[in-house]
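Much of the work behind modern protein science is quiet bookkeeping, done one molecule at a time. Below is the pair of lines this work produces for a single protein:

***
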Amino acid sequence: MSLWLDLAGCEYRIAYVNGGGLRTRYLEAGREGRENSKEALIFLHGSGGYLEAYTKNIPAHAKHMRVFAIDMIGHGWTDKPDHPYEPKHYVKHLLDFCDAMGLERVHLSGESLGGWVATHFASTHPGRTGKIILNTAAGVHYDPAVSARIHEMSIKAAENPSRENIKKRLEWLMLDPSIVTEEMVDLRYKVYTLPNFGRVMRNVMCLHTAEFRVPNLISDEECARITAPTLVIWTSHDPGSTIEVGKKLAGMIRGSKFVVMDKCGHWPQFEDPDNFNRLQLEFLGAA
């Protein structure tokens, strides 16, 4: 089934906006009667991803609220300045996007890298943050072996963008690799064959090197500044970390709720969208 069939019957648009000097690609849905709303939900993808990671989630949420999914700095078809991307750069870009769209307060749902960014945003901009959902969030710990494997797979897929290499990188995300479709491979192939994308991927994947990851790990002090109601979603078969890592993150954020989704890998919003959507909408008070 095509990713775009997930959006059938949902009013949406894909457009670009200048976010702090960066041409930023975004999808907006739930616009009817909400165009002037200064509050919204923003979906944030993982490393090497793009807004299409949320096609199975946008329609369910757009029934209740204004919804955005964005290509973060260096990702998808958003501009790609040539420097290593640290959490502070993603947070600044997200804040610039919110300002460009007139959003005064946002709920954030971030997967992997997106969860890391959401944590930093909530900590540094509490007045702009509603609720946050941290979905198999990165940045909680440093496992050299896991980081090295992800780094190697990602660089290989970008510097030698064969469909086979890209498919292997996508399959790593899923508990059941058979759900990776040719369309998903083709979409990522189109991104990974953009000019100089091998260099871009090295900037993206800097957070899987000790030099950049360790200084940027989510800290107790940072979490102590988070006042946003928080839902931490983990999975039974996350290839990047254990359930204990998820519990650690939840324990660092005062009053957070912790949920484990069974029979999922690193993309529960895609692997089990009905359950993911239900959990998130209940947490947002929209179910």
